[in-house]
Structures are given as structure tokens and as C-alpha cells.
Write a structure and sequence with these properties.
heterodimer, A: nine-stranded parallel β-sheet, B: alpha/beta, 6 helices, about 45% helix, about 20% strand
């Protein structure tokens, strides 16, 4: 601000520089000096039309990417008229039953230029097929579709618990999407390996780091077993981390993650292309760190967390809205969240120098320590998988090991809170003062009615024989492990088969997964 | 005091109802109640109101605790109270999770004994469950 000239990067002559393997200091030499991170705000509620309105608002306000939240029935592969969906349609995200809803969701948005992220896992391949179908119908070449499908099923069993099929057939769906993208959608990231939910479920930073990367290694091994070229598909994997409130620990978590990924991809899996060894990641500030008490204080929390993500070198960022401990965010609250990122980007000056914290004694030693703790966890997973991270991760899921580790860590943290060993300002200490509740977003019961009407209309207008034929082909393809399921899923989407019908067809072949309850 | 010492421990069934899989809160609550000396049964994910009523009857519980982060509390919590009452059970229902203030009277009218919001302390959780067990059963709403 005062005009003191700054170098693009600082460090002694022999230091690792940003953009140099193993990328501890960031993926690019100049980092945010040449290109800011993508400000990607997650949104979704009500009907596809409601969310389409919010999407257009985000693009108008200067957001550079879209990120879709689906409602619980969609995430669980249930139609809006399913008995289990009662009360949940359009509540926590947007309801999608058929490709007709997907067309509404992206109405008047150019799929050839926008970058779209879709947060969905068990039915990811099905929803993705609907998105590709919308692009096909509008004449957008598949190689111009850009975005990210979360499609990370492993962390569902470990943390978020939105599973449908058992782990092995689920992994087949993930690899089928990877193969399809390798062949036809070079700009698409087919899996976003997500630590976010592991952390939200209560893990420590080291566990988030280690479990997420272990899952990443599992996808690498699954893709290698499916015959994909490592340098090609690994360059298209992306990651998704939490930004929690412990500032330096978070920054060091991202630095350690990049370094571990580069080392493992080269040394264990034999990658030769730098792009395949570079960990690209999205970050979201920690929903669990937000308090319902004195919710405006959350604006400060989000700013600190977002700053950690930026100093840690994130490629894209979602900032939570201050009212999210109370409800889905209002448009006003979502705008403040985006403005927080813009203040960091355009006012704070932290973008002027690449990895400004590199060389700090604290930052370097904490980065090393997190890497050491993660390696100890990898060694355990590798041993229960008898030398395979893929088998180790699946064994750890089947025995409930990950789930128990996360629940233990979550309980330990709760103890700290209860015993006053961890302070939450406005909630567990400094509680006097204004505690007025902001007005929150209220989703009316009409959403369910509207969506049920929409689904009934779509079903009435479609060709039932074509739907039956498409689902029949899908079941036949599912029974043969060597067949990629994407063509059958695209065909089913095109004739307006519902998410629920497709899932039930696959269930007849794959079966379902039920977790053994334990606390 | 003497009464409390000899009284059998409270039995609590905790469950996730509906499709929502966010189980961090309920697992913590289960351990808090257990540490407070209660017998806790965790029914697991994706329970229906009928399944909860069946387990509540079989396990003879004093309180049912539901954890909800999916915005479906106005549909699902009253349905659980109804399922319990129509099974002839007087079991109290406590809801925890993200529930907007405007919905609180509606849940009370539907027979929910109390609602614990985000940030409730361990003591508040234990007190709410004890109070719900001690109070006369609320009828299901219309």
C-alpha cells in the first residue's frame, strides 16, 4: 500500500520455490500474482428454478464458478415422491428427479463457458449423465464441459454417510466416470477427493489430511487396476479440504498435503508428469466452527479461515455465510461471504507474494509434523490392506475403523468445549451482549408440492417403453463388470428415467449398504 | 437423594430419522448421556417413525432422542410422536439439531418435549432428557 517494492517470492537461494516439486509452497511460481483463486459459492435449495435464480445472482455478483447443493433425497438416490423423501424435498439443497429438472437448473447459463461443481456422491454418475445430456441437447461439445463432480464415495462410508451401494460396486461407478471423462471430457474433474466432510464429522486436522490422501491413493489404485494411464487421469483428480479455525495448523495441512501427494505419486505410483503430481484443491470454511449464538461473530471466523486457505495456496474457495448454524443462508448473508473473499483478494495484499509464510520456523516445522502424523496413518492403512491402499481403505471402512477414529476425535473435542479447555467466543465464553437472531431463509412446504407436480408431469409426458428398455439395458450392463455404465446412464437420462428408478435398477445387481450402528 | 440412588438408570433410544446422514451430533449426545449414567441405544441411520416406535416398545425406553439437520423436523418429529402414541407408548421425544425458532411452537404442539439447538452444552442435553422423562407424556398433535 505504501509503495515498498516486493519480490514475487522470498527465500534463500537453495530453498524450494513455489511451483517446484514437491510443491510444498504452492503449485505455481507466481501463485495469485498472475491468477486469483476461483470464488466458488455453493448454493442449492427448493426447486431447480429457485436455485437457477441464485446461480444467476452469483454470476452477476462476480462469482466465477457454480457449485450445486442437492437435497437429501437426490443425494440418496430417491425420487421426490418416494415415501422416505417426505419432508426433505428441496430442504437442504435442490431437488433433481429427471433431466427435465437439470435443464431448469441451468436455464440461460452457458455450459460451454461456466465451470460447474456438483456435490453428489452415491448417485454421482447418474446426475452427471443428466448434466452431460443437457449439454448434448444444447449442442455444447462434450470437450467444452468444465467442472467437478465430487463423486468421492469412500468418505461417504467414513464420514458423511450418504451411501447406497456397497463399497466395491460403488468404486466401479467412480472408475467408470473416470474412464468416461478420460475419453471424452478433458476439462472435467471426475472425482473431488474430500476431506471436508471427514473434518466436519469431527476428525482432527491430521486425520483429515491422512484419510483424504489415503482415499486419493485408493482411487489411484482403482484407476490403475481399470487400466487407465496414471499421468493422464491423476492430472484430473482434485481435492477438497476444510478450512477450520486453527489458523497455522490449517495452512500447514495444505502445504503437507501437496508435498505428500507429489512424493507418493512419483515414488510409489511412478507418475512422471508434474501435472499428475500436483495436488489441486478447493477449500470451504468450516461449517462446524460457526455458532448459533451471536451469529455475526461468524463473519470474523470465516475471514480467518478463508485467509488460511489462501495462505495455504487453494485453487478455489467457498466461504460460509454467518447464518449457516441456523439455516441455509439468505442471499444477503451469502453476499457478505463472497465479499469476505473479495476483501482478501483485492485489499489485504496477501496475494502479492507467493507463499508469504514459507520459511517461518513454526510453519515449516508444523508442516513436517503433520506430514509425519499422516505417514503413520498411511502405514496402518497399508498394513491392513496387505500392501494396497485401496484394499486397506475398504477394510478400514468395513471394520468401522475410520468411523470410530472420527467419532472418538469428535467426542474429545466436545469434552474440551464442555470443560472450558477450548473457547468459542459468544457461545462458551463472552456470552453477554446482543444475541438477536438474524432473519433466516425459510423454505416453504410448497416446494415439495411444486416438485411433486413437476415430476408427475414429466412422467406423464415420457415414453414408458423407452424408459423400461433403458433400465433393462442398465441392469444388463451392471451385471458385467467390464462394461462402462456411463453410456447406459446417458441413455436412461435422455428418456427421462428418474434418479430413483436408475438407483433401484442398479440395486437389483449391486445390493445396498447398511452401516452397523455404533457410538 | 436416596430415591435417585436406587432408581434404575434412564433408558434412552437415540436415532436418525429420514435420509440425513449427519451423525456427529447424535454420537456425541449418545456418549454424553452414557457418561451421565443412562442406558443408551443407538438405532442408527435412516430410521422411519414406525421403526423407532417398534424399537422403543421392544427396549422399553423412557425417552427417544432424534437428531435432525435436514430441515424435515416439522414432518418427521410429529410423525415419530404419532407412531409412538399409536403404539400405546408414552415415551417422551426430544429433538436436537438445526430448528428455526419459528418452528418451536409447532413442534411443542405436536407433542415434542423439548428441542436442543446448536451449541447446547452437555449439561443442557442431560437436563433436557431427565426433564422429558419426568414430565407427563405429551399427546401427539392434530
Amino acid at each position: 500500500m505504501s509503495g515498498i517494492p516486493l519480490e514475487p517470492v522470498y527465500g534463500p537461494p537453495d530453498a524450494e520455490l513455489p511451483g517446484q516439486w514437491p510443491f510444498t509452497r504452492g503449485l505455481h511460481e507466481s501463485m495469485y500474482r498472475s491468477r486469483l483463486w476461483t470464488m466458488r459459492q455453493f448454493a442449492g435449495f427448493g426447486t431447480a428454478e429457485d436455485t437457477n435464480g441464485r446461480f444467476k445472482e452469483i454470476l452477476r455478483a462476480g462469482g466465477s464458478g457454480l457449485s450445486t447443493a442437492f437435497d437429501m433425497p437426490t443425494l440418496m438416490g430417491r425420487d421426490s415422491d418416494d415415501e422416505m423423501a417426505l419432508g426433505e424435498v428441496g430442504r437442504a439443497g435442490v431437488a433433481i428427479d429427471t433431466v427435465a429438472d437439470m435443464e431448469d437448473l441451468f436455464a440461460d447459463i452457458d455450459l460451454g463457458t461456466v465451470s460447474t461443481s456438483m456435490t453428489i456422491n452415491s448417485p454421482a454418475a447418474i446426475i452427471f449423465a443428466m448434466y452431460v445430456t443437457v449439454g448434448d441437447r444444447r449442442g455444447v461439445p462434450r470437450d467444452r464441459l468444465g467442472g467437478t463432480l465430487q463423486n468421492d464415495i469412500l468418505k461417504e462410508y467414513q464420514a458423511q454417510k450418504e451411501f447406497i451401494f456397497p463399497p466395491r460396486p460403488s468404486m466401479r461407478l467412480v472408475t467408470d466416470v473416470m474412464r468416461f471423462c478420460s475419453a471424452e471430457l478433458p476439462r472435467w474433474h471426475p472425482v473431488s477427493i474430500s476431506g471436508y466432510h471427514i473434518r466436519e464429522a469431527g476428525s482432527t486436522a491430521a486425520q483429515e489430511l491422512a484419510f483424504t490422501l489415503a482415499n486419493g491413493f485408493a482411487y489411484v489404485e482403482a484407476a490403475l487396476r481399470a487400466g487407465l494411464s496414471l499421468d493422464d487421469f491423476a492430472a484430473r483428480l482434485s481435492f477438497f479440504f476444510n478450512a477450520h479455525i486453527d489458523f497455522f495448523e490449517e495452512i500447514c495441512k495444505y502445504r503437507a498435503a501437496r508435498r505428500i501427494w507429489a512424493r507418493w505419486l512419483r515414488d510409489r505410483y511412478g507418475a512422471t508428469d508434474n501435472r499428475a503430481m500436483q495436488m489441486r484443491f478447493h477449500t470451504q470454511t468450516a461449517g462446524v466452527s460457526l455458532t448459533a449464538q451471536q451469529p455475526e461473530v461468524n463473519i470474523a471466523r470465516v475471514a480467518i479461515e478463508a485467509m488460511a486457505a489462501v495462505l495455504g495456496g487453494t485453487q478455489s474457495l467457498h466461504t460460509d455465510s454467518f447464518d449457516e448454524a441456523l439455516a441455509l443462508p439468505t442471499e444477503d448473508a451469502a453476499r457478505i461471504a463472497l465479499r469476505t473473499q473479495q476483501v482478501i483478494a483485492y485489499e489485504s495484499g496477501v496475494t502479492n507474494v507467493a507463499d508469504p509464510l514459507g520459511g517461518s520456523w513454526l510453519v515449516e516445522s508444523l508442516t513436517d509434523e503433520l506430514e509425519r502424523q499422516a505417514e503413520a496413518i498411511f502405514a496402518h492403512i497399508d498394513s491392513i490392506g496387505s500392501g494396497s491402499m485401496l484394499d486397506g481403505v475398504i477394510a478400514g471402512i468395513e471394520s468401522g475403523w475410520f468411523q470410530a477414529e472420527i467419532a472418538d476425535a469428535s467426542f474429545q473435542f466436545q469434552r474440551k468445549l464442555n470443560e472450558g479447555r477450548w473457547i468459542q467466543v459468544g457461545a462458551t465464553a463472552f456470552t453477554d451482549g446482543d444475541d438477536t437472531r438474524p432473519s433466516t431463509l425459510y423454505i416453504s412446504e410448497q416446494v415439495e408440492e411444486q416438485q411433486l407436480k413437476r415430476l408427475a408431469e414429466t412422467k406423464r409426458a415420457r415414453d414408458e417403453a423407452a424408459v423400461d428398455a433403458a433400465l433393462g439395458r442398465l441392469r444388463a450392463d451392471a451385471a458385467r463388470a467390464e462394461i462402462n455404465l456411463m453410456p447406459a446412464l446417458l441413455a436412461a437420462a435422455d428418456v427421462y428415467a428418474t434418479v430413483g428408478e436408475v438407483v433401484q435398477s442398479l440395486e437389483t445387481v449391486f445390493g445396498t449398504w447398511v452401516e452397523t450402528p455404533s457410538v | 437423594m436416596a430415591d435417585q440412588l436406587v432408581a434404575p438408570p434412564l433408558r434412552v433410544l437415540v436415532a436418525k430419522v429420514g435420509l440425513d446422514g449427519h451423525d456427529r451430533g447424535i454420537k456425541v449426545v449418545a456418549r454424553i448421556l452414557r457418561d451421565a449414567g443412562m442406558e443408551v441405544i443407538y438405532a442408527g441411520l435412516r430410521q422411519t417413525p414406525a421403526m423407532i416406535a417398534a424399537i422403543a416398545a421392544q427396549e422399553d425406553v423412557d425417552v427417544v432422542g432424534l437428531s435432525m439437520h435436514n430441515g424435515a423436523h416439522l414432518t418427521l418429529a410429529p410423525a415419530v410422536v404419532k407412531a409412538l402414541r399409536s403404539a400405546g407408548l408414552e415415551t417422551a421425544v426430544v429433538v436436537g439439531g438445526i430448528v428455526p425458532d419459528v418452528d418451536l411452537p409447532k413442534l411443542e404442539a405436536a407433542g415434542v418435549a423439548s428441542v436442543l439447538g446448536p451449541g447446547a452444552s452437555a449439561d443442557e442435553v442431560v437436563d433436557a432428557v431427565r426433564a422429558a422423562a419426568a414430565a407427563p407424556a405429551a399427546p401427539a398433535g392434530p
